[in-house]
User: Fold this.
Amino acid sequence: MDDDHGSTHSDNHDTFEPYLLTEFTGDYFGTYNEEDFEWPEIRRVMESDSETQEEDEDEDCDELGDGDAIAAHDAELEHGWELPVDPASQDIDFPGSEDVSLQPQPCHAERRQAEAPLGQHPTIEKFPRRGAGAPLHCAATTAFTSYKDKLPGSENIWAPFASRVDYEVAKWAKLRGAGSTAFSELLAIDGLHDALGLSYRNSRELNQIIDQELPCRRPRFKHEEIIVANEAFDVYSRDIMECVKALYSDPDFSQHLLHAPERHYVDSDKTVRMYHDLHTGKWWWSTQASDRKFMLPTSAYCGLTIQKELETKKRGATVIPIILSSDKTQVTMFRNKSAYPVYMTIGNIPKEIRRKPSRRAWILLAYLPTAKLEHITNKAARRRTSTNLFHACLRHILEPLRVPGEDGVAMASGDGVVRRGHPILACYSADYPEQLLTTGIKSGECPKCDVPRDELGCPDIPVKLRDLVAILAALSLVDEDYGMWTRACQECGIKPVFKPFWEDLPHANIFQSITPDVLHQLYQGIIKHLIEWIKEAYSEAEIDARCRRLPPNHNIRLFMKGISSLSRVSGTEHNQICRFLLGIIIDIRLPGNLDSARLIRAVRAILDFLYLAQYPCHTDQTLNLLDDALMRFHNNKGIFVDLGIRANFNLPKLHFFRHYVHMIKLYGTTDNYNTEYTERLHIDLAKDAYRATNHKDEYPQMTLWLERREKMLWHDKFVQWRLAGDPPVQDRLPPDMDYRRALKMTKHPTAKRVPLDRIICDYGATFFTEALARYVVRTNQPTLSAVQLEREAAHIVLPFQTVATFHRVKFHTINASGYRDPTATIDSVHCQPPRKDNKGHIIPGRFDTVLVNEGDGGTTGVNGYRVAQVRVVFTLTSHAAAALFRTPAKAPTHFAYVEWFTPFGQPEANHGLYKISRVIRNGERLASIIDISDIRRSVHLIPKFGPVVPREWTSSTVLDLCSSFFVNSFSDRHAYLTII
Assistant:
């Protein structure tokens, strides 16, 4: 996707008058270059990175920062104009909920039971033929040693550069620096070149060193012409077999490569399968199998019986699953210039590596022609020529796969081990238009199965994979009789495509290879439709009013202007809306006194499907949950028909949901082939490459720029290897469900000495001294009764008048091996009083809500947990701790003053969210001091707005003004996994 989005956060505040807006008059004249405007995707990635990158150790010590500017802006929008309340919406006689027993709802206990095995070490069944994926021999050299032998002057670690400074400057210039002209001008500064001792004086000389002295580890691009309809088209491509070898031989991946299929089970009896990486799916096993008893069942869906399995022909094969992705993208903002990249990777590389752009596990395979063929006036002929051009280009590019796919080819991994590899097309990842183009299927139909287009919305019709044998037979008639060819293609349900690229690929079934697409089918597909349906069903003004009044949270973007007026909404923005969509429609009344229970169930079902579909690990039981979610939507979708919003649900993207379970069983979980990863590649491999050119005859410049960049990146890995040696061998990790996280506090407090009266007034910790006294007594004498505790606490005298406070608590991920990633902040808790920004504008206070472990909380589920609002996080001096605690060494280093909410009860019947409220005793909020380590994560609460949201509520005051809340389990994937 090429849409841009922003990310905003909001803070609570006290009532204040918004400052006046000044009208922007702008400049009437002025010249602007395209470079003056940053790309939407670049801004999106920068914002995403800024949210996940580790901030400075003492960031909370900064008085003001960029977050304050955002908070001040949101505070201003809180008091902006909005549509008044519709009086009619307040006078509707709202009937009670319909009988929920008529519709089965998701059971949290059943879901917890189904998800319990996820993330655990599976029972592994190896492929029964020992030769599968087995080494043939070991090469004399490894990838790094071979590279070293090709380098001139390799005894110098920095060769071909003279010194470390020489190398580091070159790396900066090619990977981080400005344009070549700016770099040359920098080096032209008198004395700079000599002071640094550089071996080059300008960009041209640096490029000569890279081109002539750095060996190529990834293949170079070739410029060729493809003739279609008596017209030549330029194609810039690489040899795909050389690309496969480059990925397979990359030493970064050598110890992680997967060489043979496996079956993973959650139990020792091997009755329940587990799926995650591609090698755990059924496709690889079936392709490798040499005996029919190891093949997939001959079902209508599988369509694999036409293949001759590798082990039947040649024992000891190593399958190299090829994953392709193609998507046209715009590379300019004004001149409508586009590029058509094709990317590839191999399934032997684990998905944890493939999905990280920084690991460079994807290769740009080709730039396809982007000609619009406007000289062809007949639209049908133009579309036909465009389709044939696409297939002619890919047929030429993929031609080198034919013979090695059948016979195999010797391939050495980065550690020098040689195996006989068989590169076989496994998955084709693309959006819906690209899927149709690839398969030759007509628009409005499913690219995988033969369900008629007017029955796509029916959940009961059996799905049958398209008959590849019949389609290949029809396509083979093209050289015999044109009329017979077109009629045969029409009877098979495909367009008459001239020699599609997949026609002769060994062991390939393109209709099976088309994979689920979470980005375009879910976020930019059905979620997009669902939001539009909700906007039609309810008052847009009421929906926007609720969006403006959601409390802030690390994982929630606040749409302070609502969502009804958004245009060109990106997939990321749809993702952000999904996180609170269910909560804001609770209690809104439907027109005509219709009960909203079915609509809420339908929304819940789609959201369940969305989150379950993105699990990094699945079992047969969790896949049943996926099917159940889809069925619940179909059972309740009739409400949209009753409201006049939809006449039918014959949507290809909705129909494709029926293929998700089968595809996960075949190819592993959806993060093996999500187009979201290749969309990110557009920035590095298309847009940035184009911006590095002079915008004239750009493709030779783009490919040369990419080759030089790849050389420097590979050489940097080589230098690191020269300095550090081979990395330690790592054990294979179990599938990581991201359950665990580590709490992180800054080294220094935000405020070093805050008087106790300010703790009470500014932070709202009304009973701070009393709560701390109780905590001290309970810690020193844990066996006291409640009455005894109160009596002892009355005698505690605090030996200080100030405390050091922290305004933010962060959380980092911990992977399955126990490694904590300090580079990413995946969650945070704010507890900051009101303050002023540099312009004197009041920034409201923000006090987040959290999930607190009361002592017996587990990995998942709410048992043993309780929600609280954090008012202040503080620490005591060693002197104070010694005076208060009998064993100061065992006392916590950080404490939190929290206000409690009621315990978790049973989730609501229709939407499945937990309802809680504040604990009030004698008219005051119940508060306690807790150990900061008892905080599991932040929690987002959605206010119970009622039929019409009170307009006096704001985002920063709603936690204080509202009495009841729903615990939002959709705020992020970790919340969905744990708050069940």
